[in-house]
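Hi,

I'm pasting everything inline rather than attaching a file, because the server keeps stripping attachments. The sequence lines come first, and each chain or strand is labelled.
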Amino acid sequence: MTRTRDITAALRSLDAADGDFDPAQQARADLRHILASDPVQTSAPSSGHRARRTRRRFALAGGMVAAVTAAAVTLPSLAGGDKAFATWTRVPGGMTAHERAEAGDDCRARQEGGAGAEYAEDLRTAEPVIAERRGVWTTVVLAGPGGFSALCITDDSAHLFSKGMIGSLGPSASYTAPEPRDVVATDLGSGAVGSRELSLAAGTAGSDVAGIAFRSRDHGRVAATVSNGRFALWLPGDEFQDAAGDGVEFEVTYRDGSTDTIVLTL
Amino acid sequence: MSSPSRVADRERTFRTVYEALYADVLRFVQRRANPDHAEDVVADVFLVVWRRLDEVPARHEDARAWVFGVARNTLLNARRGDHRRAALGLRLADASTRAPASGEADLVVSLVDLRRAWGALSGAHQEVLGLCVFEALNAPQAAAVLGISPVAFRLRLSRARRALRLSLDHIPRPDKAAVMHERSTTL
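And the predicted assembly:
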């Protein structure tokens, strides 16, 4: 018992928490933002239990979730931002080479400044293999050797909370290069940005895969961007919330014109 | 539609919880994640608390454990792939910058050895020890953070303590004779 007490005392002397901090200013600012947000419950994690909805590979990186008052729905918002995904499009738009490079740099910087700090070297060598627009939203996938990838979805119109992002990154535990007609998901599920739900799918696609699409009950046929062996699509809503158990059905179009319906799971 | 008085009550309750627990939650996160982003993570945690305010236990100690559980899940959910299911290990401070807080100059545990032994522990063992040692939670409170029963927590804690002691016992020690000689010449 004495030894346990000694070890406990010694451990406490190695506490990594900063005992002398003064978080008052940041804490007050965050309190104001939280109280200004809509207290409608979302899929955020509850105490002691796993989140209800699938949130694979999601990270709120680079800062707090955007918080707006209810009044901003009808008044011009100082925060900017596409609050209800109003500008989102089923079919993605592309980018010029210059825009793609800039979007890739932006995604790299956001990830390095957030959850991706430990993957700094992987991020530096990863290239933007997907860069698409859906309204004011930009989606970037960075890919590097060994299956490393990073994903960023950002609202380019937001400025007050411009650090808000949905993203993920990391190596793929069991990465193998896809066969020509393979489609493998690395991201699949639903998550929330503030009070807004979105569903996303991303992963690898073989060389014979020309197109991937999801038949949404709310939005119709949502097309993915398929490029450089990767694919990505996202849509407002929580239609992928049961992806962990049931998987999600996608339509795949191959270069020979043939099509198939596949179920993706993680 | 909430009445203005109910909204005010809700806000008052949240402010009380926020002011009472902010520092503890910040320390919880600093021990388990990149300290440069700790305040952002804490903001995310309290956003969840704001939205689930009706679920927060009334007693302060139980509320503290409940919010730690939210913080734990927030940190775990931010990880990728297989690591999402793993436990939340803890960092320790650099041993060379710390002096034992107990005042006992002859602590039998060298801080350097302890840090090394801690690093050899699994994340799961670090997690249960961390809740007990740093957050000072009792078994029912720590069990609530992990979503397990108090009995299961006590079992895990017992195993974790044993693992740490075994790890400490296997760290090579300097030659005892040389140490004794040194001590005698300094007396």
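The first helix of chain B runs from residue 4 to 32.

If the labels don't parse on your end, tell me and I'll reformat.
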